[in-house]
Amino acid sequence: MNPEERVNLIERLEQLRNSKVLVYFSYTPLDDTILVPLYKQLKDIGHTKKIDLVLHSYGGAVDTPYKVVTLIREFCDEFSVIVPFVAKSAASMLVLGADEVVMGPISELGPIDPLVKHPVYKDILVPVQAVWHCLDYLQRSIINSSDPEITSFMVTPLLDKLDPWLIGDYEKTIKASQQYAEMLLTRYMLKNDLGRVPNVTRTLTEGYFSHGYPIGRREAKDLGLKVTEANGELWDVIWKLYLGYEELFKEKEKEAEATYKASEVYRSTLKETCF
């Protein structure tokens, strides 16, 4: 799909939704680097009645969604998020700051329990709740053991590896996630149904054992979120737009891979020349 076709789909989506459409499509973690480009786009649009954000993201930093919501709402009266396929973790947090979320048959949100870098293996992200489940498991192992002294002797080395400062930081991250969820739901998504806020917050931050759990549009609606189901032409346009950006990213990946291979050949040639 060429750029003109993607632009045509965005324009048609704007007509169907009577809105201005922004697209955030990424496979890298959502973080504050989005803010300046987003601000530039919003300045170009100017203040408008309604903004739709087409969102594809697997999540990222715990603070960024709140900043994104606050920034977008400086430029519109109504704000909606359109999820063609995936808006997980921090991206699901962003959804809580919208007036509605537009979802299709394959769209999914996810739990908003935050991810942190593994204390040893820095390239690995782990859910903060994994630390608490580990502590709970060790505690139950000691209490339920037929010989608590032996069990305690076995698990003590594991407990010694848990840095108390790190645990404290993880605890703050969980509380921050809960705080942001409550604020966004109270001010926006559930402002007319405040009684649901505590339960929705608790469910999204603590209620799922898998960080990748798929929350489809029916479950999101049952949970209490304001879900607009995309059907007919609306969904066709949203899905075609998603496929167009997915194709674009695959092309960029191939280009990057080809560039890398070319540089490897170049370095290899230099090595042969030197020798």
From TrEMBL:
SUPFAM superfamilies: ClpP/crotonase. One of its GO terms (cellular component) is membrane. InterPro entries: ClpP/crotonase-like_dom_sf, Pept_S49_ser-pept_pro. This is Peptidase.
